[in-house]
Amino acid sequence: MPSLSLVEVGYPIGTLADGEIAAAANHRLGLLEEALIKVKAADAVDEPIAALDLVNVDDLSSATEEFYRRGWTDGLPIVAPTSQAVHRMLGDWKGDAPIVTVPPRWGVLTAGKLAANAVMAGCIPEHFDVLVAAFRAMSEPRFNLYGIQATTNPVAPLLIVSGPIVGKLNLNFGNNALGQGSAANATIGRAVRLALVNVGGAIPGYGDKATLGQPAKYTFCIAENEAASPWGSFRFERGFDASTSTVTVHGAVCTINCLDMWSKSADGVLTSLTHTLTYVGSNDFYFRGEPLIILSPEHAAILAGGGFDVPKIREWLFSRARIPLADFPLEAREYLMRLRSEWDDDVVPVTDRPEDIMVMVSGGVGPHSMVLPSFGDTRSVTVPIESAPTLAG
Amino acid sequence: MLVSPEGSAKPAHFGAAPRLDAINGQKIAFFDNCKPGANVFLNAVAHDWARKGAEVRFFQKTLPTGPAPREALVAVGEWADAAVFALAD
């Protein structure tokens, strides 16, 4: 926004003494006043939505280098987005069809822009409807993409694909479901990241202020192992039937492994999960989030054998995943006390409600489940995967 | 020729708001995002502007990581001539 007037205040603020913060403010009072009353804002102007604007590149072999120089890659080599490849990716979509606007730059994501990023990531046209659905899901206000994109936190949107499309696209829901080796998982997740950067402006150090980030910012896409879930797909409780494929987006701060190769009882597995979920420093405790539990098929079977369904798992975890207020740092306690009306006593629960703990099944054989703490002020969103004619009509 | 992946088009409603002519006599809202120290910084600015004749009022987000509550934004929009938000850490 060229007309925006800025007054810079050096980092940090939060860790300074109150007197130092006040001094920093007092030092800039004149500039702040000037920004408010003297710098006149230019009229905002609508920029035209370009269908497919072109970039002149000497030869295709230099595409990676040229796009890297322009800040359009994730640092890895790309597939050159030729007009032919982008049109093939678009299929029945029109290039100038707007899909959503993407913060923090609030760039307009058209089908053509998404297709260009998809080609760069190595996607095939069959992946495109998944990408469209992912961005529609992320644009729901309750997902809080603005915060997720711009924060100092390492959070990244995790895509969870569920339903018949998982098999059609050969998405990995078995061993190493969150790891390397599957073209569909890798390229779909990468295309989302590239568009978040190139359209949303999540450029490291600028639109994306992550202190450290995380490897999931390269690609982050998993499929549900529906067949291994004793309780059916998690999308069923979100109102979708078995024939409908969905994409769910979850604002995941990190992945924390939960090893339990000893427990033969549900109580044992749940004890391990509780302690994996419960730590000072988790955004969920501070910002009342929606952590995700990915149960391995083995752990899911133990829980089901012990008579647990998903609501009972949630209740068990909610009642035990708690930290005494006294275990938090002193200054953090002062912040948490403001939220205290939600709790019965001086013990902070991981979420506000049992229903805010998300549970699904994925992965292959092995005694490892996973906890993905959330960004906090975010809620996962599930949308159906639809084709271009469906959305148009 | 390759297709640019960059989404440069921006909707017009994200333009900056008109500026005030003066501080004196204006209603200015200060919006605390609850991050550590934000209230101290805003207090210092508000104190100065109140001394210069502004009417100041404080608003607060419930959580620092998400958007401000809609009711609070509506209240600021209805009451204030200008609003100052605290951002960052």
How is the topology of this model organized?
The complex is a heterodimer of chains A (393) and B (89).
Chain A: H1 18-27, H2 29-37, E1 54-55, H3 63-69, H4 83-90, E2 98-102, E3 107-110, H5 111-121, H6 128-138, H7 145-150, E4 156-162, H8 165-168, H9 183-198, E5 221-223, E6 246-252, E7 256-259, H10 266-277, H11 283-287, E8 292-295, H12 297-305, H13 310-320, E9 322-324, H14 330-337, E10 347-349, E11 358-361, E12 368-372, E13 381-384, H15 388-392
Parallel strand pairs in A: 4-5, 8-11
Antiparallel strand pairs in A: 2-3, 4-6, 6-13, 7-12, 8-12, 9-10
Chain B: E1 2-3, E2 27-32, H1 38-51, E3 55-60, H2 70-79, E4 82-85
Parallel strand pairs in B: 2-3, 2-4
Mean pLDDT of chain A: 92
What is the makeup of the main sheet of chain A?
4 strands, mixed
Structural class of chain A: alpha+beta
Count of alpha/pi helices of chain A: 15
Shape of chain B: extended
Number of helices of chain B: 2
Largest interface: A-B, 90 and 47 residues
Trace the largest sheet of chain A across and list its strands. Answer: 5-4-6-13
Alpha-beta classification of chain B? alpha/beta
The parts of chain B where pLDDT drops under 50 for at least 5 residues are none
In terms of DSSP E residues, the strand content of chain A is 5-15%
Provide the helix percentage of chain A: 25-40%
| N→C terminal distance of chain B | 43 Å
Estimate the global geometry of chain A from the Cα principal axes.
Answer: flat
Q: Calculate the mean pLDDT score of chain B and round it.
A: 86
Instruction: Give the H and E element order of chain B.
Output: EEHEHE
Radius of gyration of chain B: 17 Å
Spatial separation of the terminal alpha carbons of chain A: 35 Å
Could you spell the SSE succession of chain A in H and E letters? HHEHHEEHHHEHHEEEHHEHHEHEEEEH
Tally of DSSP β-strands of chain A: 13
